[in-house]
Amino acid sequence: MNLLKPTSANSCPLTPLTFLERAATVYGDCTSIVFNNTTFTWAHTHRRCRQVASSLARLGIRRGDVVSVLAYNVPAMYELQFAVPMSGAVLNNLNTRLDARTISVMLRHSESKMLLVDVHLRALALEAVSRFPPGTPPPVLVLIRDLEESLSLPPTVESRVNEVDFLMSYEDLVKKGNSNFDWIRPINEWDPITLNYTSGTTSAPKGVVHSHRAIFIITVDSLMDWSVPKNPVYLWTLPMFHSNGWSFTWGMAAFGGTNICLHKFNADNIFSAVDRHKVTHMCGAPVVLNMIANSPNAKPLKNPVHFLTGGAPPPSAVVLRTESLGFIVSHGFGMTEVAGVVVSCAWKEKWNRLPVTDRASLKARQGVRTLALTEVNVLDPESGLGVKHDGLTQGEIVLKGPCLMLGYLKDPLATAMCMKDNGWLYTGDVGVIHPDGYLEIKDRSKDVIISGGENVSSVEVESVLYTNPAVHEAAVVARQDKFWGETPCAFVSLIGKANSEDIIKFCRDRLPHYMVPTKVVFMEELPKTATGKIKKFWLRDMAKNLSPPKERSRI
C-alpha cells in the first residue's frame, strides 16, 4: 500500500475552543452560567466570548501575547477561558491568594500585555503593578466589576472606572466587541494556549505552558473518565485558576453543562447551591471534602452528587464521612504539568460488595492511567527500573502521554530536569504499585521522613490521624532528632477535645512505633496554598524551631 500523507482536511489543529461553537448550536437555549440572580445561555456565552475576543484584538493583543486574569469564580472568569485564546493570546490564570510581590514577578516573567482584575482584588493587582521597575511597561488593566451592577447600566453608558488605573471595564469589552468576530484559530495544534504557574509548595513557581492539542485531549479524556453525562450541573468549588479548573472549564461547554459560579464558598453555601440548583458534579481538593464532612450543618443530600477530588491523597476516613452524606467520591491524580486528571481510581463492580471502610480505603488510592495517558510507572531511584507490584516498594511516579506540557517558560534547565531524555515526566511524587496494578501515592519526595533508616510516609500517618473523631485537619512533617535523624511531627486542628498524649496514644495503637509522631502541635487552622494544599514547607520551618525532642524508645 502506498504511504498516504496527511492533508489540510484531516490534519486541522485540535483546540478545545471548538467546543464553544458546538455548544452554541446544540445547547444554545440551555443554561450555561448561573451567578446570583444572573443567568446566561450557551448562545449568550458564545456571543459574549466572541465580543471580548474581538475587543482584545482591537486593543492590540496579538497571537502569542500573554493575557493574565486575576479573578474569583465569576462569569467573566469562565468566559475568559475561551475569549482570551480566541483572540490568539495565551491565557494566564493567576492564583488569587498570592501576595503582590509574587504576582508582580509572574506578570514580568510572562511579559503579560493585559491583566483583567476582579474588582474585589483591585488593590492586590495595583500593588503588584506598582512593583514593576522603572522602564518596564506594566500590563494594561481591565476591571471586572460586579456583574449585576455592570449589566444594569444602559447599553450606551460605559462603566465608570478610575481612568488612571484601568483602561476600561470587562463589560465594556463585551459591549464594544463584534459578535461575529472570526476568532483566531491556532496555526498548529502545538501552539500554546495556557500558561499556569505552579503553586510553589516545594520550590519557586514555574510557568507551565500547554498546547491547544494537550488541552483538547485532556478535556475529552477527563469527561470520559469521570463518565460525565450531557447537561451536567457543575458547581465551581474548584478555583478556575487551579490548572484551568482541571480543564472542566472547556469540558462543560463540550457537554452543555450548567456552570454554577460562586464568588466565595463555605460548607453552608455549598449545601445551599447543591439543593437549589440540583447540582450533579463538583471538584475540589481534599480540604473541600473535609469542609463538607465536618460541617455542623451537614445533612444528607436529596440526590447524589459526584465529587472528583485530587491534589493530595484524601484520607479514607474523610472519604467515608463525605459519602455517608450522599456524595459519590472519585479520586484522581494530576498536576499543573499535565493540565488535569491523568490517573484515576477506576472503580470495579466487585468492590461494591466490600465493607464501606474497605471501599473508602480503595478510593483513597490514585488508581490507573486514564485513556489518554500513554503510560504511568513507578521507578526505582537507583536502578531507574520499574518497582515490584507489591504495594510496598516505593519509587518516583513518572508519566508519558499527549497531555503533558510543552515545558516551563524560559526555563530549559527545569524542563530538562522534569522531562528527561528517557521519555518520562518525573512528578516528584513517591508511590507504590499494588498487585492489582493500581498506583498509590505515598508522599512527595521532599515529604518522606527518614527515621532510624526507615522511610515514614507522612500520608500514611495523616490517614490514621484523620480517623480520630476529634481531628479536623492533620499534616505530618519531619522534625530533626539527634538520635533517630528525623521523627514525625504532627500539626493538627481539632473539632473535638484531645491533647498531645491522646493523639500520640491513638497513633501508637494503630501504627508501628517508628511512625508515631513524637510531637503534636495544635493549630486553629493549618496554612494552605490557594489550591487547598497544606503548606508543608511552612510547617517544616516551624518544626525546625521546636524544642529538641526527649529521647524515647520506639520498640
Automatic annotation (TrEMBL):
Domain AMP-binding enzyme C-terminal: 460-533
Cited PROSITE patterns: AMP_BINDING
Domain of life: Eukaryota
Annotated AMP-dependent synthetase/ligase domain residues: 20-409
CDD domains associated with the record: ttLC_FACS_AEE21_like
GO MF annotations, alphabetized: (E)-caffeate-CoA ligase activity
Keyword Ligase: yes
InterPro entries: AMP-bd_C, AMP-bd_C_sf, AMP-binding_CS, AMP-dep_synth/lig_dom, ANL_N_sf
Keywords on record: Ligase, Phenylpropanoid metabolism
Pathway(s): Phytoalexin biosynthesis; 3,4',5-trihydroxystilbene biosynthesis; 3,4',5-trihydroxystilbene from trans-4-coumarate: step 1/2
Example GO biological process: phenylpropanoid metabolic process
Family named by the database record: Belongs to the ATP-dependent AMP-binding enzyme family.
Listed name of the protein: AMP-dependent synthetase/ligase, AMP-binding enzyme domain-containing protein
